[in-house]
Amino acid sequence: MSAVKKFMFVNRKAPYGTIYALESLEVVLITAAFDQDVSLVFLDDGVYQLKKGQQTKGIEIKNFSPTFRALEGYDVEKLYVEKESMDARGLTAEDLLVDVTMLSSTEMGALMNEQDVVLSF
Amino acid sequence: MLHIINKSPLSSNTLESCLRVAEPGDILLTEDAVYAATSGNAFEVKLRAAMGRFKIYVLQPDLEARGFATKLIEGVSPVDHGGFVDLTISNSACQSWL
Fold it and tell me: Which residue of A16, A114, B14, B75 is most buried, as measured by CB atoms within 10 A?
């Protein structure tokens, strides 16, 4: 078995308006199955994916937000949001449905720079 | 005219262009555009400034799906799918901005 690589998933799209957010989550789960070092990053409108209280009955689309709370079970425990993105949307850690680490843009850039593979959604 | 916007104001300039160009009338925010009508969003000031010239509506099921049912900016009117249809009837024309 080859060495474990550091994978980062960069999520910059809001949920439901496009399919990117759901597709990212699918690939994250696949990557986790291969015992890789996985980090999830939420930037720009991507932070909306983690908003509490999503009720999708009225748009007849599956609410996939509870899956973020199940990631722990797949040993995906590194979730990061950019503080600047949160501030621009009036969001705080209490608005999110899962525990995350809040990073500044500079800290986010440093974390990105440590990765072996970066996948953008 | 009814202007229909479906893109987030922080990832696209669609709503901004609409506000710049359009004559006073109705604007319906759907899909990711509903974020423009949520309190604390960086676009809030621009939306409030536009409320004198435009009547702003938001599609409630899209707001609920995104978890913002309780953070709608005051003065924006929520409508359901039936209300969406009513707006297309009460206006002589509709423009869906892409």
Answer: A16
